[in-house]
Amino acid sequence: MKYMIMQDVFYIVVLMGLSIPLGNYIYKVMSGEKVFLSPLLVPVEKKIYKLMGTDGQEEMSAKKYAYSVVLFSVAGFVFLFLLLMLQGFLPLNPQKMRGTSWHLAFNTAASFISNTNWQAYSGESTLSYLTQFLGLTVQNFVSAATGIAVLFALIRGFTAKQKTTLGNFWADLTRIVIYVLIPLSMVVVLLLVSQGVVQTFSQYKEIASFGSGEAQVIPLGPAASQIAIKQLGTNGGGFFGMNSAFPLENPTILSNFIQVLSILLIPASLCVSFGKAVKDGKQGRTVYAAMLIFFAAALIAATASEQLTGPMLNGAISSGSMEGKEVIHGVGGSTLWAVATTAASNGSVNAMHDSLTPMAGLVTMFLMQLGEIVFGGVGSGLYGMLAFVLLTVFIAGLMVGRTPEYLGKKVEPFDMKMVCLLVLTPPLLTLLGTAVAVSMPFAASWLTNSGAHGFSEILYAFSSMANNNGSAFAGFNANTVFTNVTGGIIMLLVRFIPIGAAIFLAGNMAKKKTIAVSEGTLSTSNPTFIGLLIGVILIVGALSFLPALALGPIADFVTSR
Amino acid sequence: MKRLKELKPALVCFGIMTILCGMLYTAVITGISQILFPVQANGSIITILQKDGTEKEYGSKLISQDFKEPEYLIGRPAGVTNLSPVSKEEKKLVQERIDWWHSFDPGNPSDIPMDLVTASGSGVDPHITPQAAEYQVNRIAKARGMTEDEVRNIIKDYTSGRFLGFIGEPAVNVLKVNLALDGLL
């Protein structure tokens, strides 16, 4: 227990320490200031704009910004869908993988362009190397960059004064990819390869095993390059089916620490960037603090559950629940990861979440169901959280009878409509998807576990897809026409409805005058406000999900005692 | 027509990103990895020079292998169950594994460490806990006619500690211990 506490505290300290310089750096990149990489990258950037036929300076209205996001995502979707279907005819396919079914291609393309990385397949037995690096790795980068771009469009909406534009999407996207994501990935990837994450184009290795003499196949591939960005961009899709539990994807304690740190690094840094961008560090610290409080509470609850409520058996030493966990990570490292990956909308796993104890399973599910705002996805987590901030401001305004305002902007009916779309789309689709799935006559055949835990498998799956997380209770058989199609549609809706809402919210905010702070202005950066914000998030989450959670993990916990 | 004007930057931008993040980035990373870390980048295969001068591959140090004889260290159960740890099915399965250990090593009075009777997340966990190795020391020593301390010393050589002294868990690499027990490593 002592070591678990030490490593969790160390993790949070390192995360906070790194998030400050990185947050400042991202802010500078996104506001066009010079950074240390500028001499190297400005020429590259200019060249890219030239090829695109823009100068990167042209300002876009909300409508045009949103339209550009959608067009770009559609291009990515079509390309990935075709690549998946046609991979059997394409080169760099040493294991001779055939094209996937249409519904798996649809689900996977939807999943990767929406930064979800839900996987209804196992990489090493389904995908060619070409599909992995030319299709999936690329979406790992650009879907993350899209989220960050939309966040900055929203921030510009708050800081602009009576403007009609939000910046240029192509410039935002390009700058995030070449100044932030690629350089960071290069650092992470080399650390990972040094630990034993594979990075090669050779075919799978077949060796006569020393233990049994039987042939053993060791899957290989250009994995590390994808795994670095999978963690940094809150994507989470494993190169191999067992994700970061698989030793060739996450071989050592150090590689595990680097990966779990990468999961929250950019989402945490963006809180700092936000404070910088609105020229009020306290506003950034407020949302950061709210996220950290949720994170710490979840971590304590999940770790206690795993360590203390594991199975007791005669003849075996009770040492915390080890089912579905790797020895080197143990209860502490596995639980820290489980909480980080569901707090962020990452979804990679280093232990099997289906084998978490019921209450730890509940914590991971609830973190997703809150709407992926406890750090959340890169960009999307913070714009989701800002929607909750506006909701809190609105509710507080109603209580004291004043027009609500945030960052000097009045919050009006149109803004609240957009906030509702941001806040309510994920829970609505989670519950709808779960309800439809359990009413399917053949639903029981998809499950590994029975009873309440079986229901948890379905609830977890739809919580994951409808919040763009992508992790799974892996006992759930996801590769069916029903789940592929409904899940694919849900992932797209839950990504692009909030993106649209955030951009139009930004457009409307940008048009407004800034009003001066007066005596009666509600402070949005003091502890009282943090308390209010946490309260609002919990109420929305609890009201939406308590009944479903009672049928799943809570019933599981009570009946297994 | 106005709509179509936006199509060009979208397609060109996607094309550039595909070349940049897909091809160039992956190629550069692969090149650097193959030069700097050739063993790690190719699956950490254990290769040992034989007496006749040829090299033989014994497996990846990161992927478990199946050992079932009393003179070898035995690792965790292979495969992934995805079962709830508190379910009836799981309890039954673990009980079967406990019974297997008792019949395999009947004289052993100790309780069995949890990792030996539960499946891992990867299904190919190459490690066991030091306690799980210690549980097997007496049996291996007897089967091989070695002293317990000789076996313990070999296990110690292939035991990794916590990172920085407090992150992660100590672990014994099963394949390496077994290669060393046979005098190959």
UniProtKB/TrEMBL annotation, chain A:
GO terms for molecular function: P-type potassium transmembrane transporter activity; potassium ion binding. GO terms for cellular component: plasma membrane. The keyword Ion transport applies. It holds the Pfam family KdpA. Keywords: Cell membrane, Ion transport, Membrane, Potassium, Potassium transport, Transmembrane, Transmembrane helix, Transport. It is a multi-pass membrane protein. The keyword Transport applies. The chain crosses the membrane at residues 9-27, 65-90, 133-155, 176-198, 253-274, 286-304, 373-398, 419-444, 485-507, 528-551. It is found in: Cell membrane. It comes from the Bacteria. Part of the high-affinity ATP-driven potassium transport (or Kdp) system, which catalyzes the hydrolysis of ATP coupled with the electrogenic transport of potassium into the cytoplasm. This subunit binds the extracellular potassium ions and delivers the ions to the membrane domain of KdpB through an intramembrane tunnel. Belongs to the KdpA family. The system is composed of three essential subunits: KdpA, KdpB and KdpC. This is Potassium-transporting ATPase potassium-binding subunit.
Automatic annotation (TrEMBL), chain B:
Signal peptide: none annotated. It holds the Pfam family KdpC. Part of the high-affinity ATP-driven potassium transport (or Kdp) system, which catalyzes the hydrolysis of ATP coupled with the electrogenic transport of potassium into the cytoplasm. This subunit acts as a catalytic chaperone that increases the ATP-binding affinity of the ATP-hydrolyzing subunit KdpB by the formation of a transient KdpB/KdpC/ATP ternary complex. It comes from the Bacteria. This is Potassium-transporting ATPase KdpC subunit. Keywords: ATP-binding, Cell membrane, Ion transport, Membrane, Nucleotide-binding, Potassium, Potassium transport, Transmembrane, Transmembrane helix, Transport. It comes from Lacrimispora algidixylanolytica. Belongs to the KdpC family. The chain crosses the membrane at residues 12-37. The system is composed of three essential subunits: KdpA, KdpB and KdpC. The lineage of its organism: Bacteria, Bacillati, Bacillota, Clostridia, Lachnospirales. GO terms for cellular component: plasma membrane. It is found in: Cell membrane.
